[in-house]
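Cont'd.
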Amino acid sequence: MIKKENYTVSIYAENNIGLLNRISAIFLKRHISIDSINSSPSELDQVYRFVIVVCVSKKDIEKIITQIEKQIEVIAAFFHTDQETIFQESALYKVKSKSLFEERHIQNIIKNSHAKIVTVSPEFFVIEKTGFRRRNRKVI
Amino acid sequence: MKISGSEAIIKCLIEENVDLIYGYPGGAIMPFYDSLYNFQDQINHILVRHEQGATHAAQGYARSSGKIGVVVATSGPGATNLVTGIADAQIDSTPMVCITGQVSSNLLGTDAFQETDIIGITTPVTKWNYQITKASEIPEILSKAFFIARSGRPGPVLIDITKDAQFEMTDFKYKKHKKLKSYNPEPKISKSKIKDAAELINKAKKPFIIFGQGVILSNSEKEFIKLIEKTGIPSAWTILGLSAVSTDHYLNVGMVGMHGNYGPNVLTNKCDLLIAVGMRFDDRVTGNLNKYAKQAKIIHLEIDPAEINKNVKVDVAVLGNLKNTLPLLIQEVKTNKHGNWLKKFREYNSIEYNKVIKKDLFPTKDKITMGEVIHQINEVTNGNAIIVSDVGQHQMIACRYAKFNETKSNITSGGLGTMGFALPAAIGAKMGAPKREVIAIIGDGGFQMTIQELGTIFQTGVPVKIVVLNNDFLGMVRQWQQLFFDKRYSSTEMVNPDFVAIAKGYHIESEKISKRENLKQSIKKMIDSPKPFFMEVVVGKEDNVFPMIPTGESVSNMRLS
């Protein structure tokens, strides 16, 4: 069995309407499903970043990266294992304002998990918690 | 002064020195064709009979001339009919620019009449593609398209232009692209890698070179021959490398791959150094990768970084354009001769000659063989013709036995294996090299896939010579059914029409040969004719192509029968 693991692929590219299609086609061609994909402007002007997470073998990801870099608009592409990346998420929870007064333990959860209150209205309030996914889930 | 978008497209073509295009009109590309009417003295438009024919003709033109093939088609079915040819050009690295019409931009995404998402459809098979919705984009994008198609590892580019953009008025200013920010067509050459490669070459006792189309695409045939003559290394070609070095050169040891020659295949697993020059280790070349050249050090000279370690793990990768890397390597390597090692190839060749080649070229049985047709063509042309082959048994036979003195003389669909390629490709090849003899070698199956292009030959009068080797079978598939599927001939026998009558219907002089004694005379007549000529040769129904490496086998296990 060839060992497969999660890789986070970061691609820096000039924007073009078809580029996302072109990149995803490279995974499709090898029958690889994409676990997550994210596209956003990067720190650099006119340069966009795609972040893609896939579960493949090391050999495959090395070949895929060169095939991605070959695409005309792509400036550079990198891959990292889970050990090499830090993944944190920011979770927002919407809660009925009434329950804050009626259910005392909600106050405790907010206190214990070091969550922040972002906004409060008469109907609901929003709390925010940033951290590892496992801990964020615990809040629920 | 403002001009229309469609006129701007034509001005771009003229700026890129395009004087010949292949195409087929239709609704969404009509503004372009209307503008073309005014430029007929500058651009020759070849009206094909099917858009697929336009792409293969453009490929043939590009391969024989070294220039970019240009194709024009309408939206919807016109555009989708290009896909096979585009995929073929992509896998065989042929420079091609396709321009398609598209429905007006206000209709995009509405399932309008003859609308298809041709950008989405062609994304995986183009080097680059782009949809233009404003006339002002035309010069910039087309300049980019031509630059991308021809630079680095060449390939097909498709530009989709909406009908309203073709009508819209715009200022025209053309600037040729020489570079693009995010595109690096030729990787930087590492001097230390050249030194590493030279060191391995100088130390090797049994070095072996496999060269591919990279040598032809980079115009470095002379440099390559200088390298092999200096180092005395036996060199074999991949199917697309054929004709880069003349077939009778003393260091040219034949073809590698499934139906290649015995020596170069078996000795791949006996050499101590394998040098791959402008080739990509296709599975039809390597057979079983786990048993491929494991004993050897491997050097790979290549322009495309994505090809390094893709199929075969290499010891030294020399990235760059061969035109630049080969001269540097020639400086570093020592003059050498590998007489005994070269003799090994000769020994294997004589085994192959006795068991296979003799029977193919000088048969004693009554039916004509494909091999003797190619042999007779060699005799008449002296190896000076361009041979355009289709896909199947006749293709393997043509590539095994055709003699070539000049480069850019072998035109065939290598990577994609597109049946129907040869007839339209021969039209393009002749137009790309009008002074040369162009002979298409086609099977009865492939001929009928693009047979309508006889109409293009008739209308243009382009003097291509067409040889159909007819065995009334889809011969290669039948051969596999015989060898690997217990002779269960499932859907491979063909009931064929009267090909000569069809050719006559297009007013093409034609002949049918079924007797050996008429063969040479008819080939002479065909070559001497200044007009298009069609020749059908009836060959043995169940002849097989050998030697052969069965799928999944090692190159060492090549079968001679």
